[in-house]
Write a structure and sequence with these properties.
210 residues; alpha+beta; 2 domains; three-stranded mixed beta sheet; two-stranded antiparallel ribbon; 7 helices; 7 strands; globular; binds zinc ion
Length: 210
């Protein structure tokens, strides 16, 4: 049998950036290459095979989004991951206890913290939460020092992120953190990059984020 290997053409663009690392404050340099291949399986949302022009414009958009985000040293980014894990835990907990939906069987309005996440649903909220955490880490680090807490600093900041983005009548702005709280509140909610998320209770009695 003859084995045929097809090499698809790669479309790539590289970029570098320099900025103050949000964790240590020192200058950091990062480089990244964005790539996709032109191949019959690489299709757009319209189901058609992407053209080189389409791929280039997608890569450009990804590059621009990356350039806008702060520049971390890789080690500094890894160092704040435990804080993010705590933040995300608080975020998910607040998501469940602040949401309600109609029970599919009894038709009663029920609070969602009595139910479990459907597989993959909690995980699906992570990338967006990490994006907020990374982009605004310096401000969040100031916030957690100012906010009243019992040691669960990052967990409470995670609560506030959910409550504020979903406009539950409290959040970053009402924790006596002055300008720092107001700045964070302005970054979330209707019309921002971090709008409201609705949770629903499925017919399988599990919680869905989309
Ligand atoms: Zn650093």
């Amino acid at each position: 049998m003859r084995r045929v290997t097809t090499h698809y053409r790669e479309v790539a663009t590289s970029s570098g950036k320099f900025g103050a690392c949000p964790v240590c404050g020192k200058g950091a340099t990062r480089a990244r290459t964005f790539q996709q291949t032109l191949n019959p399986f690489n299709k757009g949302s319209d189901g058609l095979v992407k053209t080189e022009e389409q791929i280039r414009s997608e890569l450009q958009a990804r590059k621009e989004a990356w350039l806008k985000r702060p520049t971390y040293h890789a080690a500094c980014h890894a160092k704040v991951t435990p804080a993010f894990d705590e933040f995300f835990r608080g975020y998910l907990a607040a998501a469940l206890w602040s949401s309600s939906d109609t029970h599919p069987v009894t038709q009663e309005d029920v609070e969602l913290d009595k139910f479990d996440w459907a597989p993959g649903q909690a995980e699906s909220l992570k990338a967006d939460a990490r994006d907020f955490f990374d982009t605004h880490y310096a401000l969040l680090a100031e916030y957690v020092e100012l906010r009243v807490n019992d040691g669960r600093k990052w967990e409470y900041a995670g609560h506030d992120f959910w409550l504020n983005r979903c406009e539950h009548g409290c959040g970053f702005w009402d924790r006596d953190c002055g300008e720092v709280g107001d700045k964070l509140a302005d970054l979330v909610g209707h019309g921002t990059d971090y709008p409201n998320i609705d949770l629903t209770l499925g017919d399988d009695l599990l919680v869905y984020a989309q």
